[in-house]
Request: fold
Amino acid sequence: MIKVSNLYKSFNGKPVLEDISVTFKPGITNLIIGRSGSGKTVLLKSIVGLHDIEAGEIWYENTLFNKLNFVGKKLIRSEMGMLFQGSALFDSLTVEQNVLFPLEMFTDKTQEEKIERVNFCLNRVDIINANHLFPSELSGGMKKRVAIARAIALNPKYLFCDEPNSGLDPITAILIDALIKELTEEYSMTTIVNTHDMNSVMEIGEKILFISDGRKCWEGNKNDILNSDNETLNDFVFANSLAKKLRTSGK
Reply:
């Protein structure tokens, strides 16, 4: 579980996040949604410690994360998996070496144990016989799967996904959503997905936090979102649905 209480973050004196409070539970897909510039990416980066916050608390289970020193934060980070926008694979490393990277950094397993774990993770995301390929030789969907394999290599308690469907066709995006949800349930991870994709919201949105202008504007699930009377949320949903129809129609 991750709990955020009264979080405040600013840049150059300008507030970006104000009084954000939310609890993300394990075993379900927790989504952060909002327009571009709403603060959702800053929130995700604050939760993982890439941004220091000026006020508020970020709890990982019973540990106050934002008050830890470097060593304490590193210990929590060893329990995190990260799926970055664009996959962020190392171009100069093979598929196997990419998935191996966090194991080399955070574990003292033998090389044989590490390779065994790499192969397990690759098989788990249906990447077969691709260990020695380079990212440039993979499709967009395969890159995402390799990135997921790398994210779960350390068997994390917490999984963070930043726009996991960016650049993917609709069918592949649905498959990636399903895989994230399946792995979340299988390993009872606390998964937080940062997205603007309404397909993802309606497919896997078991817990949804909607941010507008740096503030928590709405909280619910994929069933609640269709019946909400929140005008700001409805404008966001309608705008995204309309944009999707226009893209599909080619207009």
